[in-house]
Amino acid sequence: MSCCSGNVRQVNSSGCCLYHRPLAYDSRWVDVGGKRILTELPTASDRRLTPAKIGILAQFSREDFRMSADTHWIPAVGPLRLSPATATITRGTELLASVSWPAMVDGLARLRAKLPQDVARITDGPVYDDVIHLSHQTFVACEGNEEHVCAEETVCGKLPPPSEHDDLYSLFNWPTTTSQGRQALLAMKGRYKPNPLPVFDTTGRLLRPCDYEADLKGALVAMEVLLTHEYNAGTEHCRIVAHVDRIEILRKPLPVVKCTTTCRMPYELNEANAHYGAG
User: Fold this and answer.
1) Residue 269 falls within a domain, yes or no?
2) What is the pTM of this model?
3) Largest pairwise CA distance in the chain
4) Is 176 helix (H, G, I), strand (E, B) or coil?
5) Is 277 part of any domain?
6) Label partner for 100 (CA 20 to 30 A): which of 56, 61, 77, 151?
7) What angle do CA 39, 40, 41 make, to 5 degrees?
């Protein structure tokens, strides 16, 4: 059982939890099944609402390529500040975070319209100081392309010529609405190299996975998503705000992820794990 089941401020190198003032008086927090749920975006002054800064890694699912109002997975990586919930992170844990699909569609629409004033407006102000910062990851369809981690912690790659793949893989028209495009995206295979999973305490000190325990599962927190499209002529980017609807912990490493030639989607990983007996 995690020692960090209350209002955790930080976890020191010995695994001891430091607590801060209870949040019962704050109307933005509600009890759902005994869990503390944040219902509004935190502001720069609400430092007590962000007790930890933890990196997360999110991956695609099959539903990413269907236009609907349901919750979908997004590819994301970056530092994350979380509210208390009920779960334990252990060594080697990977996290998956899902976000509101309408917010993603809104962000893509802004990016497609290329409205710098709107981009500046939605990223300005202290309300975004304490939210999650994630980066869009570029998945390359062709095998053999090299991907690397940029200084901005954005996963990018050497893209094929725009004339060949813009209709399917450009962020300006992703996710595509054509069945042919959806099938191509679902069949997409390319080498995938995510950033590592960094974990920090509230002082900014990097923690090793064996140094901390934190409560994550069921947390509902705000986040800022940085969508970055890398292409031959340059980079387009914008920022949007969404909510983390679910955080899921993968208890076991996935052997297929270690493959050096292809990257499979999560539903393919599940099938492969069943085949390899990973469970």
Assistant:
1) no
2) 0.17
3) 57
4) coil
5) no
6) 151
7) 140
